[in-house]
Amino acid sequence: LWKCLDAPTLKENNRWEYLEKLSHSLLTRHENSGNVEDLQNAEVNINSALGFEHLQPGDKATCLRVAGLIYFRKYKVGQDSKMLDTSIEKFQESIKLAPVNDTTIYTTINDLGNAFLEKFEISKSNTDLQAAADSYRGALEKLRVFRSKSARKDEAMLLNGIGNVQIRQFQSWSRTSDLDAAISYYKKSLDGTPDFNVKKATRGGTLVW
């Protein structure tokens, strides 16, 4: 991707796309290696991509989602709540700009749910927890409209997210109805997780807890 960006044949209008893919690749490598420089470079490149004046709304939505993922990761690394707020803002902007026929929009809405759930761990605010719940349920609704090849796996991911919200509600207010709902969602999530998927073990462990 670095070589592609330096290629004299690269059209300037297409440069943002390579910057976006490079940023996502650097983020993935950072998550695997912990190399902080990769995370810093990912941020620089995605902001360069977002700096292109003539980005189409759908293309900008794609870049904003990657930016949201980068700032979410920066929060996880440095525990700076400003990075988490920035992450939420990027996801929200991405969702607003996404085309109505975007079949992957549920992934960004799920990312937003993850960010709000993380924010709840800081604020203990019911508003943040409800925002997480609304995001997961909204993502699930979109997924069921745009059935994809990975629908079963992704539905399990979203059901697990709703289960996480329910268990937080139980921990906060000790309502057995929340615990029952959490168990139900975790069971559905576990049933929908393929046997070969590494998440099968972690979701099974959550259910046992």
Helix content: over 70%
Secondary structure: number of strands = 0
- Sheet of most strands: none
Distance between the termini: 44 Å
- Helix-strand makeup class: mainly alpha
Give descriptors for this structure:
single chain, 209 residues, mainly alpha
Describe the structure.
The chain has 209 residues and is mostly helical. The chain contains ten helices and no strands. Helix 6 runs parallel beside helix 8. The radius of gyration is 18 Å and the shape is globular. The mean pLDDT is 89.
Which helices and strands occur, and which strands form pairs?
Elements: H1 2-6, H2 15-33, H3 36-50, H4 57-78, H5 81-97, H6 105-123, H7 126-145, H8 151-173, H9 176-192, H10 199-208
